[in-house]
Structures are given as C-alpha cells and as structure tokens.
Amino acid sequence: MHEIDQAVLAEIEEMRGRLRLHMSTPRRWEGQLRRNLTARAIAGSNTIEGYAASVSDVEDIMVGETPIEASDTVAVEIEGYRQAMTYIQRLAEAGDDFAYSKGLLNALLFMMQGHHLVKRPGWWRTGPVYVTSAEDPT
C-alpha cells in the first residue's frame, strides 16, 4: 500500500471516530460511558477467546448494527456473549427468586455458543481444557 493510501485511510478513520457519536441511531443502553465500558469489557473477554474486535465494532454489535471491521463470525460470538451477560445483569435483580443451577450454566453456555452446534452447546465438556497463550503454547 502506498503512503498516500495510508494517509487517506488514516484520515477516514479519524473522521469516522469523530462522526460516530453524531451519526448514531437511538441505542438500547443509555449513556456513552456505560456503553463504552461494557463494550471494552466484552472486547477484552472475547479477545481472550480469539475473537478480536475494536471497541467501536463491539458497540455497534451491542445495538444491532453491522460492525465496520469485525467479521460475521466475530460478530456472532460477541452478540452471544452480550446476550448472556445481559441476562446475568437481569438475574441480579431477581433477589430471592434466583438460584444457581446446572441448568442456568448450560443456558448461559448455549446463549454464547448456540451457533456452534457441532460443539454441543449447552452441555458440559467431556474432555480436558487447557489455557495457553500465543507466546507459550505449552
């Protein structure tokens, strides 16, 4: 890519960032700070799982808009995570009517992974799970 092309792309990105708040449609969450903090939390958590998206794209996904850079695969993963976390926030208001159960955990897993039917979403894993990093895959 030529230097001129990179400069134009950088200028477009800058304009996009400045205009985002002025061009947005009404959103479900009130308040830019809450929306941004929620998007940052979702982006961070999903990046750990290998589904990276910018905070701006996560904000778009949260309100049902098409993200600019994130792939459809990443958008589906983020939407599932958002749905499960929103449900957990609602459960926090349940008071004495709430109870932890295997069914609750399976339901949350299904909300996040229901689009991966091959992985048996909503069921406990039957084998071992390993947590590694790209720097130390052992």
Give a written overview of the molecule.
- This protein has 138 residues and is mainly alpha-helical.
- It has one domain.
- It contains five helices and no strands.
- Helix 2 crosses helix 3 and helix 3 packs across helix 4.
- The N and C termini lie far apart (37 Å).
- 16% of the residues are buried.
Q: How many DSSP E strands?
A: 0
What class would the helix/strand composition place it in?
mainly alpha
Number of domains: 1
- The average pLDDT score comes to 82
| Sheet with the most strands, sense and barrel status | none
Helix content: 55-70%
Write down the Rg: 18 Å
Supply the key terms:
single chain, 138 residues, 57% helix
Topology, element by element:
Layout: H1 3-23, H2 32-48, H3 55-62, H4 72-91, H5 102-113
